[in-house]
Amino acid sequence: MSTIFKLAWRNIWRNKRRTLITIGSILFAVLFAIFMQSVQRGAWGKIMNDVVNFYFGYGQIHTKGYWDEQSINKAFEPTDQLQKLEVEGENINAFVPRLESYALAAFRQNSTGVLVVGTHPEREAAMTNLGDRIIEGEYFQTGDKAVVVASGVAENLEIGVGDTLVLVSQGYHGANAAGKYPVKGLVKFGSPDLNKQMVYLPLAVAQKFYGAENKLTSLAIHLKDKEELESTMSFLKSELDTAQTYEVMDWERMMPELVQAREVDAVGGYIILFILYVIITFGIFGTILMMTKEREYEMGVLLSIGMKRQQMGIMIWLEIVMLGMLGALSGMVAVLPFVYYFYRNPVDFGKFSDDMKAAYERFGFEPIFPTALDWSVFWTQAIIVVIITCILAIYPLLKIRKLKPVEAMRG
Amino acid sequence: MAVIKTQNVTKVYNPDTIPVHALNGINIEITQGEFTAIVGPSGSGKTTLLNIIGGLDNPTDGYIEVGGQDISKLSDNELIEFRKNNIGFVFQAYNLIPVMTAKENVEFVMLLQNRPQAERDQRVKELMEAVGIGDKMDKRPSQLSGGQQQRVAVARALAPKPHFILADEPTANLDSKSTANLLDIMADLNQKENITFVFSTHDQRVIDRARRVITIDDGLVISDETR
Ligand SMILES: Nc1ncnc2c1ncn2[C@@H]1O[C@H](COP(=O)(O)OP(=O)(O)O)[C@@H](O)[C@H]1O
Ligand SMILES: [Mg+2]
Q1: What is the mean pLDDT of chain A?
Q2: Cβ contact B83–A306 (<8 Å)
Q3: Is the model's pLDDT at B210 over the cut of 90?
């Protein structure tokens, strides 16, 4: 066996130029594939993360039917059971209680529609880093009777820190809602859409404003480890009455369009990879054809002197698979610095194209994407190449099976 | 005792299209220790005959016995096994595997036979010295002259201790000095070790060295003389 391995290895290097060209083409394919996948994963990872972190959280609990209707009339009271689950859920850092509804905001002659989010200031900050988005003034605290306004809203209303914002809306079950709140801070979101509509109040203040004392529209779930999302979701679903009372949704269910967009993009990527690998497959196959053809005489000699077809098959199969592995490995090594560089230095796509910037911002994100440094991307592509070569290497096996020494050696 | 025996061996190539009658009923017997030349003009059927005797090709009809065994009925895998253990081949050229050194080429069949390392080492050394290139052990075929390559091929053919050596025009690509040299070695091995050689040729200088000359033409034995 070690003899066969040794022979296979030496055979690889008998035509150095061709071997290097073949390895080079595999290297390029693997490099391109890994880089592309890393960029794609990185971008989507960032997008998902942004979406989840800027507001939604990895999951939420609502009254059953709330998400479709988004009406304040579906508000619920946090029960003892919910409080108990918050403590018992192993991977639950905290629930962020919120009361959300639309309102009209006004300052002097100006008015605009806003989404008023009543929230627990400290928990909100811990989960969505809202506090870090402050660009002017200060973040609020529990007990404040003040509002934090997105900078776009402030611009529209020409309002500043210290000014008093007027909010008017319809409250819980049709109650009148009106209030005046001093602006304590301005926050900035990457998305102009969000930036033009977010207004935050401390939870108790919002409950009072909407006439929904002690009521919530959602509990956003702040996880300790996002990898444990699924288990946490099933824990909550099993504990809560999801048939009648509550709905427990993860971010994928709350934002199906986003998941779909990611899938469409992934399919596009797969098509490109597929074409790339088809080309590479033909390239490798060309090498195999040449290799098999020019070795025919030699294989005839080997058969004559008593080498079994099986042994010869293993030798040639090993040659081709080693070739594939060498290409895949060198591709992995070659792409690593690129992936790492762009992982550490995310690319700001907004710099290249205003259209792209606009498109991403419409979804609510800044178009600044790092590559994903994900080993599964690396070895998946390597394995694909190795599988391709394993399959292609069957061709010479079929040849060897039918090889007649006399014919092979007649040239 | 006959190491090779053929009875009415015929070979027709392309029986379904344009049939070529390469052998038309060959009856020969070769005994242990012979030094025999199969002689005939190009196209007379020498290669075809040696291939069939060596179990590289099947006859269309007839019976072949090698070392007392009927080989016309062996399966492909049995034939490979049979060749490995019973027959040494020397071809006209390109006998050697280019990625192996001279030593590895000679050792190769013994490796396929799973012979122990010590035995292999000793036999390779012995054989390489017998064919006069004990100093070229680690050279690749491309670093050897044509004559040296053929000597390595003879050593390789001998390595598994076959019943006999079949050599199809082994000197066809050699100059006269290398030809003489290779024949000296073969004759020497034949005499000292009683190794049976059957070789084809149409070179008169080679024919002159043979002790038995079987002449074939058009796939038939036309003369058979022992000197
Ligand atoms: N594989 C083959 N297919 C068809 N004809 C063949 C084949 N091999 C040999 N022949 C023919 O058989 C005859 C004998 O060939 P061969 O045994 O090679 O003769 P020699 O070795 O004496 O030159 C020739 O006419 C040759 O053309
Ligand atoms: Mg011939």
Answers
A1: 91
A2: yes
A3: yes
